[in-house]
Design brief:
The protein has 360 residues and is of the alpha+beta class. The chain has helices spanning 2-27, 88-117, 137-141, 160-172, 223-250, 252-255, 262-273, 277-296, 303-316, 322-350, 352-359, and strands spanning 34-48, 51-65, 119-120, 127-132, 148-152, 155-156, 179-185, 188-194, 197-199, 202-204, 207-211, 217-218. Helix 1 (2-27) crosses helix 7 (262-273).
């Protein structure tokens, strides 16, 4: 059930993203001929008012299609309601609407939690270990996913973002030096010694961390507290996500190892859903913000890539030649499919059930 819950959340996020593009186009009178969730062959397909709605076999995303790209369409090339014939601003609204929809959904989910379920309590002391990379310093020291680090070298980490920042700073500033770590695992105190690796003078341990969030809820005092808490949580999650993607640019070698594919994302969602509705809300908000930030990157096939082409068109004063646009998008297709397959295979191999089967 936990896996099904996380899959349902992912499906909802993709649906919301594509609905953003769809509604932005329809509200401006721009012609749309397809709305699909997933890629590949259609499991379900139905046409309604000129739009073909489809559910496809590979649940790795979705897309909204336009007659502009349909070579068999009977619509005239100069039809003013085709997307390509609309002003740049209108096209930019359609392209960016998916990102805006995901950001809005994340905020609404947090507001909804505060309104109907309650607000999270203050974080518990320490830092939570979300995942550990194989053969890295954290794994070699015996640090496990789910461990709650309370002290480093006798220093209390405190709570929340301050605890996370203190932990990261100590690790960064102590490459090649042994550090004593005090943590809790299933309620039992664990003492470990870890030696951060040296990556260009900066300490790294190969672990994904987050504040030790207390997922129990309390009633909100008033409406102002609901919005204040939602805004604070949203900004924290957004800043963490942006910082993570910045790491891909500034320190790709280390950060790339933390990338997760669909299998790992579903596994994390299942683990969080075990904590109840509050865990699932955190998962939905975090993944929705991640989808928004990821799609904002100026890469082929992503919304950011299309916006980049639109910006170049605005600077040039004329559209980019179709052959160059097609080459740009096709290169992105190969990259994304290849990366998705690698991540799916890697994440599947690391699942505890698969590891048990291999070890037999």
């Amino acid at each position: 059930m936990n896996v099904l819950s996380s899959l349902a959340v992912l499906g909802l996020l993709v649906l919301f993203h594509e609905s953003g593009h769809f509604l932005a186009a329809k509200s401006q009178g721009i012609l749309v001929n397809g709305f699909s969730i997933g890629f590949g062959p259609a499991i379900f397909k139905r046409k309604f008012k000129g739009v073909t709605y489809a559910l496809r076999v590979l649940p790795l995303g979705g897309f909204v299609s336009f007659p502009d790209d349909d070579q068999e369409t009977e619509i005239a090339e100069d039809d003013p309601n085709l997307l390509k014939n609309r002003p740049i601003l209108q096209r930019a609204i359609v392209i960016s609407a998916g990102v805006i929809a995901n950001l809005l959904l994340a905020w609404l989910v947090l507001v909804g939690q505060g309104s109907f379920a309650g607000l999270p309590n203050q974080p518990d002391p320490g830092v939570l270990v979300v995942s550990v990379q194989e053969e890295q310093a954290a794994a070699k020291a015996g640090l496990n996913t789910g461990d709650k680090v309370i002290r480093i070298d006798g220093i209390e980490l405190g709570r929340g973002q301050e605890a996370l920042q203190a932990f990261v700073e100590i690790i960064k500033n102590t490459p090649d030096k042994s550090i004593d770590i005090e943590s809790f695992r299933d309620g039992e105190k664990i003492l470990l010694n870890i030696k951060p690796s040296n990556v260009e003078g900066t300490g790294r341990i190969g672990a994904q961390l987050q504040p030790n969030i207390n997922l129990s809820l309390r009633p909100a005092k008033n409406l102002g507290e609901i919005f204040s808490n939602a805004n604070s949580q949203f900004l924290d999650l957004f800043n963490q996500t942006v910082t993570g993607y910045k790491g891909l640019i500034t320190d790709f070698g280390s950060t790339a190892k933390q990338l997760s594919g669909p299998v790992k994302i579903v596994e994390i969602g299942a683990q969080l859903s075990e904590q109840g509705g509050s865990g699932l809300v955190l998962f939905a908000a975090l993944v929705s913000i991640n989808l928004a930030v990821l799609n904002s990157l100026p890469l082929p096939l992503l919304d950011g890539g299309q916006l980049a082409l639109l910006l170049i068109e605005g600077v040039r004063g004329q559209p980019i030649p179709p052959k160059l646009q097609i080459a740009f998008m096709q290169s992105g297709l190969l990259l994304i499919i290849g990366l998705s397959l690698v991540l799916i295979i890697r994440d599947t191999a690391q699942l505890s059930l698969v590891q048990q089967l291999i070890s037999r």
